[in-house]
User: Fold this.
Amino acid sequence: MPDTLVRVATVDPVWDRIRRECEDAVRQEPLLGGLIHGSILHHTTLERALAYRFSLKLASGEMSEQILREIADSAHEADEFLGQAARADLMAVLDRDPACHRLLQPILFFKGFQAVQAYRIAHWLWRRGRTDLAYFVQMRVSEVFGVDIHPAARIGKGLMIDHAHSIVIGETAVVGDNVSMLHSVTLGGTGKEDGDRHPKIGDGVLIGAGAKVLGNIRVGHCSRIAAGSVVLSEVPPCTTVAGVPARVVGEAGCAQPSVTMEHRLDDRS
Assistant:
């Protein structure tokens, strides 16, 4: 009896949901049909769609869309973490940003998500010694999105950057999983010192708008940094810090501040 070849379809619920959302969006707004088909529906996987958006947004007279597309496709084919991180980032935006109602929104419209996915390509290049090309991607991300993330920085999955204007993340910074931050956040150094000089942000941390975390300091997991704070010393886990310079003002207020996105300070914080 001849062997029967069984083909098992790949299950990707995130990608399937995105495609359904796009089909609904085209029916509701036919004028966006070209954008949605070209950016998403034309592609067979989320990874290929992300590579297309990467190339389309960052192309310039200095680097063609075709070359950038080949770079991004190669990165996604070589490293499955990129696709895993993109899916975690998408779900983080949908879950934590009240302005996000569909998964297609970050892919098409949200510069924070798009900038982070471009950074992940730059980081992939950096880890393979292609530092000049990684710097080029960093430059274009800064020019196009107003987000400056050094390609050597290490960033975990499930990152949500709301609004994303004027984000700066330095070379030796480390950002854990499931972190949320708002616009104008800086993870920077304190001067001209070389070496390991940037913050280490734990899992589940919430960083408010305009906060500056400076120096090689550790921010403990599931902590909160209030908007406008300047953090110059270590932040214990599960606490809230606020002020200039920041000091501990209470507990984090909940088990997962980066998910609840609660920024208010009161007697229970």
The chain has a mean pLDDT of 94. The chain is about 40% helix and 15% strand.
